[in-house]
Amino acid sequence: MVLEGVNMKRVLRIIIMVFIFTAVLALCGFAEEAPYKGASPWAVPELDKAAGYGLITDRIRDNMNVPITREEFAEIAVRLYEIKTGKAAVYSDMNVFSDTDNPEVLKAYSLKIVNGTDLQRRLFSPEMFINREQMAAMMFRTIQATPLNFEFTAGKGGIFADENEVSDWALESVKFMTENGFLRGADGRINPKGTCTREMAVLIAARIYETYLSAEEEPADEEPAEDEGAADSEPGTGSYDWDQIVINDTVIFRDNYHIRNKDGFYYIFIGAERFKYAFKLPYAGSHTYPEVEIIGGSITAQWNSGEDVVLKVEMREGSTEAIVGGKKVDAGMAPYIISGKMYIPINLFISAMEMDVETSSNDDTLFIQYKDTFPAEILAGTWSDTDTDLFAATKDIEGGSGNLPSYATAYRFNSDGTYELIKVSAAGINDTIIKQRGKYKVMGNTIMYYDIFETIYKGSPFSLKYKDEPVGRPHYEFIFNYDSKEEIVEIGGFWLNRIQQFPGK
Q1: Topology of domain 2-33+228-370, per CATH?
Q2: Predicted confidence band of residue 159 (pLDDT cuts 50, 70, 90)
Q3: Considering the domain 376-501 in this protein, what is its CATH number?
Q4: CA atoms of 495 and 492, how far apart (whole Å)
Q5: For residues 261 and 229, what is the distance between their CA atoms, to the nearest angstrom?
Q6: Which of 286, 327, 329, 278 is nearest to 304 (CA)?
Q7: Pick from 57, 62, 99, 96: nearest CA to 75
Q8: Shortest CA distance to 441 belongs to which of 413, 461, 467?
Q9: 89-117 burial: b if 16+ Cβ within 10 Å, else e
Q10: For position 320, what pLDDT does the model report?
Q11: Confidence band of 212 (pLDDT split at 50, 70, 90)
Q12: Are strands 308-316 and 321-324 parallel, antiparallel or unpaired?
């Protein structure tokens, strides 16, 4: 299976090879959770990138918009350090703390990223929430612990109205983080004592990664050999113009995919950590994602149905031979490792799943989508994960919204291709109401949201923070399941029930 280049800026054509397992694959289920849940809609594109970098830990992935603890932050900081250095952080066998034995905390302490809260009593306080200035200090120390050719002094920038509210010990860190664009405030204020959420910590770690932790050159001796056709450019046209590849609802940015040319055919490689999220299937019940295992240079992707193995695909670094359902096939090009990261050729899976491949109208995005299209007319109406009509309940927010669920989400899909979204977090910590309006389009089993404008209310009582701010990038959600009898649908990993139906187009 290969991709043939014919005017690659406009068209990418799949050369389909027939596999005996195609029909089976279309029926198989998966078993893995979504990469993160509970994230703010505006943050999703950046979190997509952070997930691709490997910066979202298992501990925080199920609830992104809650305050982050010292232990959770230590795990992210260590992850950032290890991604940069390519080696595991080490720690002393003697535990300096009496209230935690988490090895990631001990690594962070050894790297001087974190300190104890009470050294006399050997306390780390792992469950204690951190604020924004504490987060800035810990991230600053993470950068300092990592070998970088960078000037760590601050003072030329980072001017903000509430500078006098920053603790003396944190001032240098906060100024460094602000003047380098890692920590951003609002209305000229940095709010140093404000809540730091899991989401915020991940976004800042990703900004640091993108600024200089990911800027290393790929070692030339790790590139595929020239006779394998290693090339990242289209013959005669220079480099590809795509800013991103979207596989179903999984966004993969430039630093997480490669294009290789062999004998005039094009192969797409993506980082292994994004593979399992990209190749989920609709209508698979609770079995949505593959189990992916990488041991040394061996890759195993296994699709399960209950306790039964439906399909197993095995590949190995440096070998074009793949074993699919126990049968040997030629994958065309081999997986390879660059800077400790495994890249998997996905043409085999694109062909097996009979996916459509096309570019966006402005050629900045390559879409790889299932041909089976979810009927857009089914979405027309209002959907919610509660029985509350959030659109009615939040109509007069500043005048008092009455009783709201602690956490709730509602969509209103209109027949003219526009949509509205409301997300409520009213559990007493950083109460927030997010409203979006924009356009949507169903592609395969993916909903693309674009031309988005966002309004946010915060506080108790709620007050307007900003209104109709444009959201720069489209974002995507996958339709996993739809039950016509129960009138429920699973979008983006969350079950929604229909509370109002509109006429279709």
Answers
A1: Copper Amine Oxidase; Chain A, domain 1 (3.30.457)
A2: low
A3: 2.40.128.360
A4: 8
A5: 5
A6: 286
A7: 57
A8: 413
A9: bebeeebbbebbebebbbbbbbbebbebe
A10: 92
A11: low
A12: antiparallel
Q: How much is the pLDDT for 69?
A: 93
d(CA 123, CA 105): 12
**Region at 86 (left for phi over 0; alpha for psi -120 to 50; beta for the rest):** left
- Specify whether the CB–CB gap between 431 and 462 falls below 8 A: yes
Sorted by sequence, the CB contacts under 8 Å of residue 23 that are 6+ apart come out as: none
Q: Dig out the tokens for 433 from the structure.
A: 């109401």
Q: Please report how many Cα atoms fall inside a 13 Å half-sphere around the Cα of residue 266, on the Cβ side.
A: 21
Q: What is the DSSP letter of 48?
A: H
CB 390 within 8 A of CB 407: no
Domains 2-33+228-370 and 376-501 share a fold: no
- What is residue 429's DSSP assignment? S
Which tens digits make up the pLDDT trace of 386-415?
Answer: 887 888 888 777 655 567 777 888 999 999
Q: What are phi and psi of 17, to 5 degrees?
A: -110, 140
Residue type, 320: T
- SS3 for 109? helix
Q: How high is the pLDDT of residue 115?
A: 87
Q: Which amino acid makes up residue 151?
A: E
pTM for the complete prediction? Answer: 0.57
Which is more confidently placed, 87 or 477? 477
**Quick one: DSSP state of residue 216?**
P
Cβ neighbour number for residue 441 with a 10 Å cutoff: 12
pLDDT reported for residue 191: 86
Q: Which of 367, 401, 155, 42 is nearest to 163 (CA)?
A: 155
Domain regions of the chain by residue span: 2-33+228-370, 41-213, 376-501
Q: Is the pLDDT of residue 437 over 90?
A: yes
Chain Cα centroid distance, residue 226: 33
Q: Is 503 exposed, middle or buried (0-12, 13-18, 19+ CB in 10 A)?
A: exposed
Instruction: Please give the structure tokens belonging to residue 429.
Output: 């910590």
End-to-end Cα separation, the chain, in angstroms: 38
Q: Name the residue with higher pLDDT: 293 or 29.
A: 293
- Mean pLDDT score of the chain, rounded to an integer? 77
DSSP 3-state of 356: strand
How much is the pLDDT for 414?
95
Please count the residues of the chain: 505
CA atoms within 13 A on the CB side of 201: 39
Which strands, in side-by-side order, build the sheet including 355-359? 250-253, 244-247, 365-370, 355-359
Residues β-bridged to residue 69: 129
Give the containing element (helix H, strand E) for 293: strand 291-295
CA distance 9 to 361: 10
Q: Identify which of 389, 315, 304 has the alpha carbon closest to the alpha carbon of residue 346.
A: 315
**Three-state secondary-structure class, residue 218:** coil
pLDDT at 22: 39
273/289 Cα distance (integer angstroms): 12
Average pLDDT over residues 141-153: 69
